[in-house]
Amino acid sequence: MSYAKVLCVGLVGVTGHVVEVEADLAPGLPAVAISGLPDTALHEARDRVRAAIVNSGQKWPNRRITLNLLPATLPKFGSAFDLAIATALLGGAGELPLLPLERVVVLGELGLDGSVRPVRGVLPMVAAAARAGLERVIVPVTNAAEAAVIPGVHVRAVDTLHRLVSYVRDGTPLLEPPATGPAPRASGPDLADVAGQGLGRRALEVTAAGGHHLALLGPPGAGKTMLAERLPSILPELDDDAALEVTALHSIAGLLPGDGRLLRRPPFQAPHHTATVPALVGGGSGLARPGAVSLAHRGVLFLDEAPEFSKSALEALRQPLEHGRIRLVRTRGGTEYPAGVQLVLAANPCPCAKPAGDTQCECSPLTRRRYLGRLSGPLLDRIDVQVTLLPVRAAELMETGGANESSATVEARVAKARAAAAGRWAAIGRRLNAEIPGPILRRVPWRLPGRDTAELRARLDSGSLSARGFDRIIRVAWTIADLDGRDRPDQEDVREAIGLRTGEGA
Where is the AAA+ ATPase domain (predicted)? Predict the structure, then answer.
């Protein structure tokens, strides 16, 4: 037999595609040709596979070898095809009976000594195999716990090519994935640590309950960073679908912990202000990799010292903030990643940033305008809640006795408010108030009475508020009503939402 086929999975973004790895061995001058749009890592597989086969005690076939990856029109990336290539090659050479690998997906990178190394993206690969109706997969032992997360898939692991050869040839059992229990609740910063800042705490709670974006302005030491870092602690845990999506993104980026558990806590990304556009939204040569905005999907993207970020990096966020996805086009093809984040911006009011606040500011009015002007109007128009924090007073800083609410207490209210919103919007397939399109909010039965929106309409007609801002204030008002346990927002809720948007009455 000179032909063999083994199944593998390739990734384009977060989407997996089943790939047939074909091997054909023909008489002629010894050579190896690989077709099917392989990248550089796949072209180099011929040398890794050759050394791994020989160092595993197998015979390398000195024939003309053609390896084809189907579908040939789909770009193939990475080293996850190594183990499938080696197995198909040995099957084509007549060294292995491949019947035990029928409808089995084989994933893994090979070391020169025949060891099977872990690869990125195993979770979405196994999920793609399950969607295609393939119920058995063989993965590197280090990735076994991660692969076993996908329900309905029989996962087995290998640590060497020799072990896989023994299984196919003699039926030697493969390794089983390790047992994993429920993940312990992660400990982290608690909202009780924040001194004072009643307005900031209220803004954070509204932001968490509705899925809104937040901007925090104020002098150094006011608590902007402390508040932002505690936003994930008051967000409810991710449900199964969201946890799979988030875990898959971190798997592609190679950032998953070794325990193989789903990531249940909303992620938190805080890139430095020197971050480039590719680092922020994704990029790289060939096929783009996910950036911070995708790694923060279903969680929080925090930009501290936001005016210090480059203008191009900030403006690149406008599209994913609006649509919840980021489309990246590179020479090897386009990739789309989820990017449904809650953006939190923190900024000092001016470059000198005196901790005492405006009373000691050394900046001219023009300098102050230029500094905050780095945050463009279109970007700020997408921020639902914008509050200015005042310096913390000594009485608030020295207060003891547990007067501040803990994250757990606030999270309970947030979860209740989110449940109310999810029940209300279930008919249109949405869960958070921040996700509701403006036209829906302006139609019966969700349209608010004219007396409750009179001030909003006046601001819209005067030009001090955009149509986007109008809708965002209405969304925040719904969130305030959910937190306070009311079925619909009233005039006071709209007024508070205006204050949280504009800073008036703070």
Answer: 210-393
Place of tokens 């909303």: 266
335: phi then psi, degrees, rounded to nearest 5: -135, 140
The secondary element (H helix, E strand) that includes residue 51 is: helix 45-55
Residue 116: predicted pLDDT? 97
Q: How many CB atoms lie within 10 A of CB 366?
A: 9
- Asked if 403 and 207 count as a contact pair (C-beta separation under 8 A), the reply is no
Model pLDDT, residue 364? 81
d(CA 167, CA 161): 10
In the numeric block, the tokens 């009455």 are attached to: 505
Lookup: tokens for 200: 């900031």
Q: Where are the domains of the chain?
A: 3-170, 191-410, 436-506
CA–CA distance, 288 with 279 (Å, rounded to integer): 11
DSSP codes of every residue in 336-357: EEE---EEEEEE-SSSS--TT-
Eight-state DSSP code of residue 21: E
**Residue range 277-286, pLDDT digits in tens:** 999 998 876 6
DSSP-assigned beta bridge partners for residue 328: 335
Q: Please tell me the distance from the alpha carbon of residue 497 to that of residue 472, in angstroms, as a whole number.
A: 9
Radius of gyration for the chain, computed over Cα atoms and rounded to the nearest angstrom: 27
Q: What is the CATH number of domain 191-410?
A: 3.40.50.300
Of 427, 441, 444, 449, the C-alpha closest to 478 is 441
The pairing of beta strand 64-70 with beta strand 15-26 = antiparallel
Whether the predicted pLDDT of 394 surpasses 80: no
How many whole angstroms separate alpha carbon 145 and alpha carbon 46?
Answer: 29
Higher per-residue confidence, 366 vs 5 = 5
The two structure tokens encoding residue 10: 């390739």
* 404 close to 195: Cβ distance less than 8 angstroms: yes
Strand, helix or coil for residue 187: coil
In 58-160, DSSP assigns E strands to 64-70, 104-106, 109-110, 116-117, 136-140, 154-158
pLDDT for the residue 485: 94
Phi and psi (nearest 5°) for 130? -65, -40
Burial class (CB in 10 A: 0-12, 13-18, 19+), 326: buried
State the Cα–Cα distance between residues 40 and 42, nearest whole angstrom.
5
Beta-carbon contacts of 309 under 8 Å, excluding residues fewer than 6 positions away, are 273, 275, 303, 374
Residue 147: both structure tokens together: 């692969």
Per the prediction, the chain carries an average pLDDT of 90
Position 468 pLDDT exceeds 70: yes
As assigned by CATH, the class of the 3-170 domain is alpha beta
Report residue 274 CA to chain centroid gap. 21
149-189 pLDDT, tens digit each:
999 999 999 999 999 999 999 999 999 998 766 656 666 78
pLDDT in tens, 446-465: 999 999 999 999 999 998 89
